[in-house]
Amino acid sequence: MGTVFSFDVRGGDPDAVRAALDEAVAGLHRADEVFSTYREDSQVSRLARGEPAAAECAAEVAEVLALAAEAERVSEGWFSMSYAGRLDPTGIVKGWAVERAARRVLAAGALGVSVNGGGDVQLLGAPGGGRPWRVGVSDPLRPGGLAAVVSAAGADELAVATSGTAERGAHIVDPRTGRSAVTDLVAVTVVAPLLTWADCWATAAFAMGSREGLRWLESLDGVEALLVTAGDEVRCTGGLAGWLG
């Protein structure tokens, strides 16, 4: 998926956790093989060319396409599973794959799991010692600095996802034009229980721009966000302060 993944696992039987980690890593590689639009032989590439019927693809394909369709519905089309008129659900795949990997390790008996996929993080359980998981949110205008620190205190599951131009340039597409989204934003960070959705909502809100994006994010249950504009203005949803610390 063109990025680095890291696991932080606390507690559990070492042998069981190691086996689950191996399965989780294999699952990430499989997700890349199945969904990569850069692989001509991936199931999604073949499906986009009209080669196999959806029923002939792996079960994960139908699952991801259903999730992507729901993301399109909730975002009123600002999140899209197509690019240049071609099927491309990769905007949802990374969050879905990271969340699934984290749950696989937790199910093996770990007490706390943090999986980071290219800066987007799924947190489950707790790291122990009476401390919560904490995630630093990079400042998009000050390399090496932090815009905020998110604490998962009081939550059994929490995800933090950021979409923006600081790391990868103008890669987010405006579904209305098919071209790079031109907005007043440089980054949107979303805090929500599940990374599958947090990642989608950050992407959709970035494409909307700060005013419409903030209004829409405020309408979503269980979702908080921090938006940074190119003019160094920080805008937050009403409940974000409850997750900072």
Describe it.
This protein is of the alpha+beta class. The protein contains six helices and 13 strands. It has a seven-stranded antiparallel beta sheet. Strands 2-3 form a two-stranded antiparallel sheet. A two-stranded antiparallel sheet has the order 6-7. A hairpin with a 7-residue loop joins strand 6 (134-138) and strand 7 (146-151). The two termini are 31 Å apart.
Features:
single chain, 245 residues, alpha+beta, 25% strand, globular
Task: Give a quick rundown of the structure.
This protein is an alpha+beta fold and 245 residues long.
Straight-line distance between termini: 31 Å
Counting DSSP H or I runs of 4 or more residues, the number of helices is: 6
Number of strands: 13
Report the radius of gyration as a whole number of Å. 18 Å
- State the shape: globular
In the predicted model, the low-confidence regions spanning at least 5 consecutive residues are none
Q: Look at the helices and sheets and give the structural class.
A: alpha+beta
Query: What strand order characterises the main sheet?
Result: 1-4-5-8-11-12-13
Helical content class: 25-40%
- Let me know the average pLDDT: 93
The ordered H/E elements are: EHHHEEHEEEEEEEEHHEE
The proportion of strand residues reads 25-35%
Query: How many strands, what sense, and barrel or not for the largest sheet?
Result: 7 strands, antiparallel
